[in-house]
């Protein structure tokens, strides 16, 4: 090796600084992906950053929150809301189903003071998806602020904050978008900005603050960035949105829907007692399919055996107590293909000791 090798450039390193104009153009592309005219703030951290920041910015002791729990993320949101001093009404839905707009309306009737609704669109961790368009109508009738975790749905199914009346819509790139995990975004409605401005407990001069971004970035016309941007993550986010634009968002969503349908159908054809965990196909998320193991079969042991057969397949056991009975087939991003679904089912069949018929 010659001495010059020490000065060799690397594709991840030695990047020129990312300009404010470039940063703003990536925000605009994310806004187009969401078909929104709201402000889109790109948050340079994993999606839990805007998820927590948006709750702490808008909720406080005067808030009455309806927190819909269809999986582990809903539980986390309830904890943050309580920590902010909000009165929290948890609406827990069995993980094998979705919440309905009727249940949301019943909660409003029982608790007329509800002025905030938190909902997870699709839960990769439990495999369900909720009917946000119908729920949005109910939330608008109530006049409540609508917070949505669309991290696992963006790229796999339509996410339309403006059409659905979502005030705070959080996305992350690491699931169906097939992008990086270290960057995320939130769209913020005028109503949500007003709620934050009126909230004395909203984080300021803080990494969690959305108002800081409004004051220091958006209100100044997005001319100067308040901090050095995370270029690597921003460039990866741009590349991932560009790849979706090239393929077409409908095609990317169709690929996920097909992977989910094939997984459900394949599991039923397999025999061996595995079943879709989510009972109704319409409640099943296109991003990931969860399966229930037969009685007496431990899901984490079955997954370990399947991964020993084929370490490449995107299988995982459910988290926490679900690790005994739930298998997750994470067919998202590059794994939303018939080949990956087939390999996953083959590995599971081998682990169950059943012989697949194809
Ligand atoms: C994956 C996911 C997130 C992001 O959280 P990680 O656990 O860090 O991946 C947030 N919300 C939902 C609904 C998700 O599925």
TrEMBL record:
It comes from the Bacteria. InterPro entries: Aminotrans_V_dom (IPR000192), PyrdxlP-dep_Trfase (IPR015424), PyrdxlP-dep_Trfase_major (IPR015421), PyrdxlP-dep_Trfase_small (IPR015422), SP_NH2Trfase/AEP_transaminase (IPR024169). The keyword Transferase applies. Residues 23-346 form the Aminotransferase class V domain. The keyword Coiled coil does not apply. Keywords: Aminotransferase, Pyridoxal phosphate, Transferase. Its cofactor is pyridoxal 5'-phosphate. It holds the Pfam family Aminotran_5. PANTHER family: ALANINE--GLYOXYLATE AMINOTRANSFERASE 1, AMINOTRANSFERASE CLASS V. Belongs to the class-V pyridoxal-phosphate-dependent aminotransferase family. This is Aspartate aminotransferase-like enzyme. The lineage of its organism: Bacteria, Bacillati, Actinomycetota, Actinomycetes, Kitasatosporales.
């Amino acid at each position: 090796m010659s001495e010059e090798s020490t000065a060799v450039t690397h594709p991840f390193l030695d990047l020129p600084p990312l300009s404010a104009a470039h940063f703003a153009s990536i925000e605009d592309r994310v806004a187009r992906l969401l078909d929104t005219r709201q402000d889109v703030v790109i948050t340079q951290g994993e999606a839990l950053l805007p998820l927590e920041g948006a709750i702490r910015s808008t909720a406080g002791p005067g808030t009455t929150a309806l927190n819909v729990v269809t999986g582990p993320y809903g539980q986390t949101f309830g904890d943050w809301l309580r920590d902010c001093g909000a009165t929290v009404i948890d609406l827990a839905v069995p993980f094998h189903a979705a919440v309905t707009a009727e249940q949301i309306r019943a909660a409003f009737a029982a608790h007329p003071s509800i002025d905030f609704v938190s909902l997870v669109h699709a839960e990769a961790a439990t495999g369900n998806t909720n009917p946000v368009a119908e729920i949005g109508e109910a939330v608008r009738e109530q006049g409540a602020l609508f917070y949505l975790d669309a991290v696992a749905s963006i790229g796999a199914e339509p996410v339309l904050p403006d059409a659905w009346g979502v005030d705070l819509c959080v996305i992350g790139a690491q699931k169906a978008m097939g992008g990086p995990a270290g960057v995320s975004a939130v769209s913020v409605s005028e109503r949500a900005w007003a709620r934050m401005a009126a909230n004395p407990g909203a984080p300021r001069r803080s990494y969690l603050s959305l108002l800081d971004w409004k004051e220091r970035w958006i209100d100044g016309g997005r001319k100067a960035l308040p901090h050095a941007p995370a270029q690597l993550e921003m460039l990866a986010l741009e590349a991932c949105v560009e790849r979706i634009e090239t393929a077409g968002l409908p095609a990317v969503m169709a690929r996920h829907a097909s992977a989910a349908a094939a997984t459900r159908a394949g599991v039923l054809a397999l025999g061996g007692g595995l079943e879709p965990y989510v009972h109704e196909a319409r409640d099943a998320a296109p991003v990931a399919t969860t399966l229930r193991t037969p009685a007496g079969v431990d899901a984490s042991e079955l997954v370990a055996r399947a991964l020993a057969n084929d370490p490449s397949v995107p299988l995982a056991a459910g988290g926490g107590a679900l690790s005994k009975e739930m298998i997750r087939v994470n067919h998202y991003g590059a794994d939303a293909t018939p080949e990956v679904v087939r390999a996953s089912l083959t590995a599971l069949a081998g682990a169950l000791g059943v012989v697949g018929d194809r």
